[in-house]
């Protein structure tokens, strides 16, 4: 028979263990209610579809006068609306999103012949790529393979990089860090077609970008300009605060791009690059406490500078994938904190407002006074992708 003292000790231990278990459970609770955010996204995008019926004009942003900004299919962002609809289909398995996604995806089809842009990955892979992944529609595959051939024409083997723009400030062969994002499209095309040309282009571009685009602290320049022999002539910015500053969305493209390159190749140098870029972002003294970066990490008037929700959404999505390769909890926590902030009242739109975009407070190009402190379609796309990746990690 237990003594009263023993009973009290056992009760105390039981209460302590119960408290510990409760505390651990609370700590393990996800910071983002994915189901709640997806319900909100569904409601907003139902309104978005009702408000946008012209398949030749794609929702892009909100103008300074408060009116909706739409663009034609040759704009680099044309694939993001269809891609967002595919993510909603993936979340819900509801055919109404599949029908809508197909409609807005097919509206981009003619860009498969577009050889004037490096952004065919954004335009075709974010739309048709997600559609093919979810439906195995062979028509999507055929369209993308034509588009991959178009993108490959912008690669110059003597320079070893895919040309971004036709000209930039007097330089004839500019390459931007954003271009890393289009390599996923080409690497898909290798698997879909068996054509090693796409593989060789992707690896060469990624390696030369790794070699020439980064500073010693692993921050990225925005634009690197080359001569016809592949020699670096200048390192510049177009959308950042200064040539030597760290434009926030550029750093997001970089960590996302090299994480993807590791996934597709298994080459550890790409993984190490992604890890080091992630460390640069996470440890930067100008990263705010809510983890939503200023539009440039070195913007001149911090803390009175605009935040960039799009940079946070892209970074969060990249870090969630990177975490699956490193098991580095710091990467997961930073991504989760970014998602939690994006899902909060400051950055999430009120229902039925914001021209039905999900997120507020993105910055397209402050130097050009374009899309400053406004919703932008690619912020929504990468936010939904990050929510999808987050939900899979929680299972």
Automatic annotation (TrEMBL):
Catalytic center residues: 119, 178
Binding site for substrate: 119, 178, 237, 249, 253, 365
Domain of life: Bacteria
A Pfam short name: Glyco_hydro_88
Annotated GO MF terms: chondroitin hydrolase activity
Protein species of origin: Pedobacter heparinus (strain ATCC 13125 / DSM 2366 / CIP 104194 / JCM 7457 / NBRC 12017 / NCIMB 9290 / NRRL B-14731 / HIM 762-3)
Keywords: Hydrolase
InterPro entries: 6-hairpin_glycosidase_sf, 6hp_glycosidase-like_sf, Glyco_hydro_88, UG_Glycosaminoglycan_Hydrolase
Protein name, as recorded: Glycosyl hydrolase family 88
GO biological process: polysaccharide catabolic process
SUPFAM superfamilies, per the entry: Six-hairpin glycosidases
UniProt xrefs under Gene3D superfamilies: 1.50.10.10
Family, as annotated: Belongs to the glycosyl hydrolase 88 family.
């Amino acid at each position: 028979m237990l003594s009263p003292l023993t009973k009290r000790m056992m009760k105390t231990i039981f209460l302590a263990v119960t408290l510990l278990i409760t505390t651990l459970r609370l700590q393990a609770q996800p910071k983002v209610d994915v189901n709640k955010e997806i319900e909100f996204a569904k409601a907003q995008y139902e309104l978005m579809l009702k408000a946008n019926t012209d398949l030749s004009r794609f929702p892009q942003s909100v103008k300074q006068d408060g009116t909706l900004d739409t663009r034609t299919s040759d704009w680099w962002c044309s694939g993001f609306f269809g891609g967002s609809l595919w993510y909603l289909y993936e979340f819900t398995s509801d055919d109404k999103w599949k029908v809508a996604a197909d409609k807005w995806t097919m509206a981009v089809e003619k860009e498969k012949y577009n050889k004037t842009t490096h952004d065919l990955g954004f335009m075709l892979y974010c739309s048709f790529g997600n559609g093919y992944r979810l439906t195995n529609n062979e028509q999507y595959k055929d369209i993308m393979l034509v588009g991959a051939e178009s993108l490959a024409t912008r690669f110059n083997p003597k320079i070893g990089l895919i040309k971004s723009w036709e000209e930039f400030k007097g330089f004839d062969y500019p390459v931007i860090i954003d271009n890393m994002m289009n390599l996923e499209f080409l690497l898909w095309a290798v698997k879909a077609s068996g054509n090693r040309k796409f593989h060789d282009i992707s690896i060469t571009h990624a390696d030369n970008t790794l070699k020439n685009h980064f500073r010693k602290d692993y921050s990225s320049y925005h634009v690197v300009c080359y001569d016809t022999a592949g020699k670096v002539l200048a390192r510049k910015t177009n959308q950042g605060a200064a040539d030597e500053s760290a434009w926030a969305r550029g750093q997001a493209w970089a960590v996302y791009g090299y994480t993807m390159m590791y996934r597709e190749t298994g080459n550890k140098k790409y993984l190490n690059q992604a890890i080091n870029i992630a460390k640069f972002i996470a440890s930067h003294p100008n990263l705010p406490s809510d983890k939503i970066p200023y539009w440039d990490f070195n913007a001149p008037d911090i803390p009175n500078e605009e935040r960039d929700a799009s940079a946070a959404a892209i970074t969060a999505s990249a870090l969630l994938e990177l975490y699956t390769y490193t098991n580095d909890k710091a990467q997961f926590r930073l991504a989760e904190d970014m998602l939690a902030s994006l899902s909060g009242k400051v950055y999430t739109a009120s229902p039925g407002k914001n021209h039905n975009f999900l997120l507020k407070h993105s910055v397209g190009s402050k130097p050009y006074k374009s899309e400053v402190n406004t919703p932008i379609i690619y912020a929504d796309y990468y936010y939904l992708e990050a929510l999808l990746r987050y939900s899979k990690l929680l299972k």
